[in-house]
From TrEMBL:
Keywords: Membrane, Transmembrane, Transmembrane helix, Transport. The chain crosses the membrane at residues 12-37, 57-80, 86-106, 113-133, 153-172, 184-202, 265-283, 312-332, 338-355, 367-388, 408-430. This is Uncharacterized protein. It holds the Pfam family Nucleoside_tran. Belongs to the SLC29A/ENT transporter (TC 2.A.57) family. It comes from the Eukaryota. The lineage of its organism: Eukaryota, Metazoa, Ecdysozoa, Nematoda, Chromadorea. GO terms for cellular component: plasma membrane. It is a multi-pass membrane protein. It is found in: Membrane. InterPro entries: Eqnu_transpt. GO terms for molecular function: nucleoside transmembrane transporter activity. It comes from Meloidogyne graminicola.
Length: 451
């Protein structure tokens, strides 16, 4: 295989792992309403608290262990290092997918609470394993040029596109809930299995071996290796050198953080801003005035039109243009300091609050942005900037330090990515209150006229 082909092969495998990192979890989110709330938990007592607040529980059960394990993965010494962590994580994730598929065909009508508890336990285990998996992938890819880091980010957004297209296909085909759920989780399972097999090929690739062995030697000299004892990272031990390395001290981590904190802050803020808006705020933006017909995406009855609008205008729009932003970052990497534009993205928060964002049971009287076309354009801008700045922030962070420290910064980047997601989601719980409070002086000063 030519050197260029080997490089492309490594790029595609990292892209696949970017897809695999998110696909199992995205499956739970995508079919949460149709499968869990409307079907599995709609048992003898549909008005149960855990059914009505299912997504709150789902979010807590996913983000807390994901964040905790991402942090723990930075410091805990495991025999076999990142490779073993990735393999074990993939086995656990695949097992949860198999268990979830099995429950699709089990009648849980008489015991919805038990099924809910099993689901939450599965989500906790899945996201604990995923936290380790994601964090390890970011540490691994930090040994490579920036475009390989971008391959993982690109895979993340392609995952969103696939989920949106699959949801639209299933919606229009009127497929049964059991069959559609099996397809979702089956696709997630096949992707995870593919990630496992691809990783086996990855470690035998000469291009991969060259970059990793070069980085390992640099880390061994500086005593900053997190690929611990018992791991032959290059697939051989031709140098007959011992595979045990010194684990970096806590002081080393603090020193590396001081060097890279600005890049890590950029990563956190990019994902905080996006997740504070997408999807929780966007899906609560309604037509203004309420009850009028859509100007775009009219198909069939009103309910189908609303579901299509949500999938096309929000989810597919966001994921597609976020991918476009990722692709742009592969060719255009400007400016070198991105903190100012990353902070400027916070302006998207008041812009989306100015739409008909429903914060309670009553309709809002003060709405500045009434057109769904303006709403769609804002989502497009949000997604392109997310794709572009998330790619650059993940690519830039490991460059702020020497090669001996890049792997640790890569793993720190993975943690701050998850931290940004978790804090953004947490912020969505207080956003309705903030918008309600802001509406009081606005109503007094402006009245009901839009700008």
């Amino acid at each position: 295989m030519e050197t260029g082909q080997k490089e492309i092969c490594v790029y595609l495998i990292f892209l696949l792992h970017g897809l695999g990192v998110l696909l199992p979890w995205n499956t739970f989110l995508t079919i949460g309403v149709d499968y869990f709330i409307s079907y599995k938990l709609n048992g003898t007592n549909p008005s149960t608290e855990y059914r009505l607040n299912f997504f709150n529980y789902l979010t807590a059960a996913s983000q807390i262990p994901n964040l905790a394990l991402s942090l723990l993965n930075l410091f805990v010494v495991i025999k076999g290092g990142l490779h073993r962590r990735i393999y074990l994580s993939l086995i656990i994730i695949a097992s949860i997918c198999v268990l979830t598929i099995a429950f699709v065909f089990v009648d849980t009508y008489e015991w919805p609470l038990c099924f809910f508890l099993i689901t939450m336990a599965s989500v906790i285990i899945l996201n604990s394993a995923n936290g380790i998996y994601q964090n390890s992938i970011w540490g691994l890819v930090a040994d490579f040029p920036g475009q390989f880091t971008n391959a993982v980010v690109l895979g993340n957004n392609i995952c969103g596109i696939l989920m949106s297209l699959l949801y639209i296909f299933i919606l229009l085909s009127r497929m049964g809930i059991r069959l559609s759920s099996s397809i979702y989780f089956g696709l997630a399972l096949l992707t995870v299995i593919g990630c496992g097999f691809s990783f086996r090929f990855l470690t035998k690739n000469k291009f991969y071996k060259y970059h990793v062995s070069k980085a390992v030697k640099s880390r061994e000299t500086a005593c900053t290796d997190v690929l611990h004892e018992g791991e032959d990272i290059c697939g051989d031990n031709s140098d007959n050198r011992p595979s045990t390395t010194s684990h970096p001290s806590f002081e080393t981590y603090c020193s590396i953080f001081k060097e890279s904190w600005r890049g890590l802050f950029n990563i956190w803020l990019v994902f905080f801003t996006t997740l504070a808006i997408f999807p929780s705020v966007l899906i609560k933006v309604e037509l203004y005035p309420p009850g009028r017909a859509f100007d775009i995406f009219i198909y069939g009855d009103m309910k189908t039109s609303e579901m299509l609008f949500r999938q096309l205008a929000i989810f597919l729009n966001f994921n597609f243009f976020a991918t476009v932003g990722n692709c742009i970052a592969s060719y255009v990497q400007w400016p070198k300091s991105i903190t100012i534009p990353v902070v400027a993205r916070l302006l998207f928060l008041p812009l989306f609050w100015a739409c008909n964002y429903k914060v309670g049971d009553e309709s809002r009287e003060l709405v500045f942005i009434k057109s769904e076309w303006a709403f769609v354009i804002l989502i497009t801008l949000l997604s392109i900037t997310h794709g572009y700045w998330s790619s650059l922030s993940m690519m830039y962070a490991p460059r702020q330090v020497g090669q001996s420290k890049s792997q640790i910064v890569g793993m720190m980047s993975g943690f701050f990515l998850v931290f940004g997601i978790a804090s953004g989601i947490a912020f969505t719980f207080v956003e309705p209150r903030i918008v309600s409070l802001l509406g009081l002086p606005y109503s007094f000063l402006v009245g009901k006229d839009s700008l």
